[in-house]
């Protein structure tokens, strides 16, 4: 399983985190691991954008919260 993940992700540090940290956090959960938040449309080509995040994120590791529409220069 780990070899398949490495062949897809191509980053051993991320695969290690996936199997050692995230797999233990979500082992008792029966699906619904991610949340998809629509983030509007990209300026220029009007492509739809979304933010994908894990449901039970570790609060200590969170970066700045994404706000749809932030940074549009209005």
- Number of separate helices: 2
Beta-strand content:
15-25%
End-to-end Cα distance, whole Å, is 48 Å
Total number of beta strands:
2
* Oligomer state of the chains in this structure: single chain
Q: How would you write the strand order of the largest sheet?
A: 1-2
Rg, please? 16 Å
Task: Describe the 3D structure.
The chain has 74 residues and is an alpha+beta fold. Helix content is 30%, strand content 20%. The protein has two helices and two strands, in the order ααββ. It has helices spanning 2-9, 12-25, and strands at 34-41, 48-54. It has a two-stranded antiparallel sheet with strand order 1-2. The chain is extended and about 40 Å long.
Brief descriptors of the model:
74 residues, 20% strand, two-stranded antiparallel ribbon, 2 helices, alpha+beta, single chain
Give the topology.
Elements: H1 2-9, H2 12-25, E1 34-41, E2 48-54
Antiparallel strand pairs: 1-2
Helix pairs in contact: 1-2
